[in-house]
């Protein structure tokens, strides 16, 4: 769910071609002087560092808000992300000079509205990824979400020693996640995402973990794709305050459902 | 949407430049420019140019440069080596490239060497009140003779590039501070010359500021026209591809959804946000269709139409199904070329006017350490049929030369050509369609029932589709 917010931005926020930044951030294999810990252990360590499964399970819905920026392009705006159990989410980014860019998944229908392309229902791989993103318990890496998880190496990611884990979700989606060797917290993702224009490689970096309520949450997310860097700074995470009708489909989307 | 914010906009060098700010070593900007292009230019072979050698040659010069302006000149020289559009350094010090003020004499110009012609006068503007008229030849502005602009020192690659350069100089001279007076000398069709004093006025439209780009005034206009055969046609024109046009474009489509034809006037439109092509084309095509590909260093990305099947208030609608004409000219560029070329390739639109500028490379902007802004190419665009638009641009299906005498007589030959074509086009059948007897060429296999309608007088007959 909320950790997947960074990936979700791929759908709602713009960006472009990459290599410059990919070249700079490509994980470097670290000297491996010890056997790699099993992925299950790494995932459990992350859950514990985040605040534990019990604490997370008490949260029924979440509202994250903050600022979105593309520093080099001087593009910025506000964002709000709403999520609720078991698999609902809605993200809105309001960008100066562009307007509101929204996407959502209500447990069944995945959609997107932006002032460049108009309203659209998600289909195929995009829809499957939206469903993955919306799975509220995703950060717990449960068997209802994860198919397989394999530790594939110890690397230097963004200057930190990290374990690289290959995840294959129940949906079939594959991606790599990076876990801080010291804190255990997830610090990044490396995935190829479906977009309206085709598949696109995306690197996400999570940082500035802080305690919001009972949970340690990333307050800073950097996403790099196609040579462009997008930064999200979260000001607040609120729990349990999202009304159920927040996930209702907008009229322009309802009209697309036949 | 992902690559929507890629720019397909050529005129950045003629916009007001951003304020310069930082005081870092000027060579730092040189390095960022070189590195950015090195890492993102779509062609890793740089079209045969030795990009490392370019740095080896020019960086020492940038290091030894005595001022930031000298470094800018070196950066521009580096960009020019690539011989591609959309490599622009936006800087407030670029006196020749930026506009002297936000206001302008409210006229449209086109270069038709040896003349510079007024093609349009903004209604109700100071220019209109001063008596300026389409078809008049501009011979001087504020004492600067048009012949100065027509003497282009360098050798542009083609006549369109030359015309563009002439136009750019004249366009710049029209600008100044709001309310400032411009003194124009114009020659009418009868050969008489006169001097006209005109106040420069603010550009109409919604001012939009997006990222590194200077403020843009965005406007969309629509009106209903009739063909010579009395068919109803919607005319929509807009000046730049920014999201501010999305809603009014949709409203105009709604108004003309049942019209017999649609004309989209993109003459002089320099482009804008690339992602808008998919959304606007979705008003004209009912199925997802690939408009073209953006080939980047990393991957090939598709611009696919998003059929617009609903309105913001939740109504189900169908995209416009009738004949579509797109009007272009030598100042239509970038996203406009990609849109027109894509719909032409798909057979969805017929293009009228004059060959476009041929500057059609997707680009992004980046703020440099100096505070200047770099616009840099990050992809190449080809239509669904593989046609590359950089260089050649879009060649209209019906070429309509610029007619000075026609303009002077009050004619818009390009619009008139499009209207005549709509008259010749098959009508898109729909409930409530009104046909004149001359439209009735019903084949035996066409199942339509013609019913008499007492409320309709001849020569029209209502055809009720079943």
Written overview of the protein:
The complex is a heterodimer of chains A (258) and B (466). Chain A is built from 6 helices and 14 strands. With 258 residues, chain A is of the alpha+beta class. Chain A has a single domain, classed as outer membrane lipoprotein receptor (LolB), chain A (Clam). Chain A is globular, with a radius of gyration of 17 Å. Chain B is α+β, with helices and mostly antiparallel strands. In chain B, the strands form 9 sheets. In chain B, strands 14-15-16-20-21-25 form a 6-stranded mixed beta sheet, with helices on both faces. Chain B has a 4-stranded antiparallel beta sheet with strand order 7-6-9-10. Chain B has a 3-stranded antiparallel beta sheet with strand order 2-23-22, with helices on one face. Mean pLDDT of chain B is 86; it is low at 1-5, 11-18, 443-447 and 449-461. The chains are: A alpha+beta (258), B alpha+beta (466). The interface between A and B is large, with 46 and 54 residues.
List keywords for this structure.
heterodimer; A: 258 residues; alpha+beta; 14-stranded antiparallel sheet; B: 466 residues; Transcription Regulator spoIIAA; 2-enoyl-CoA Hydratase, Chain A, domain 1; 6-stranded mixed sheet; 4-stranded antiparallel sheet; 11 helices; 26% strand; globular
Query: Biggest interface in this structure?
Result: A-B, 46 and 54 residues
Described by strand count, sense and barrel closure, the largest sheet of chain A is:
14 strands, antiparallel
- Please give the CATH class of the largest domain in chain B: Alpha Beta
Q: Helix share of residues of chain A?
A: 10-25%
- From N to C, what is the helix and strand string of chain A? HHEHHEEEEEEHEEEEEEEH
The CATH class of chain A, by name, is: Mainly Beta
Assembly type = heterodimer
Find the structural class of chain A using helix and strand composition: alpha+beta
Q: How much beta of chain A, percentage-wise?
A: over 45%
Please report the distance between the alpha carbons of the first and last residues of chain B. 39 Å
CATH topology category name of the largest domain in chain B: 2-enoyl-CoA Hydratase, Chain A, domain 1
Share of β-strand residues of chain B: 25-35%
Radius of gyration of chain B using CA atoms only: 24 Å
Number of strands of chain A: 14
Give the mean pLDDT of chain B.
86
The parts of chain B where pLDDT drops under 50 for at least 5 residues are 1-5, 11-18, 443-447, 449-461
Give Rg of chain A in angstroms.
17 Å
**Basic shape of chain B:** globular
Round the mean pLDDT of chain A to the nearest integer and report it. Answer: 88
Number of individual domains of chain A: 1
CATH superfamily of the largest domain in chain B: 2-enoyl-CoA Hydratase, Chain A, domain 1
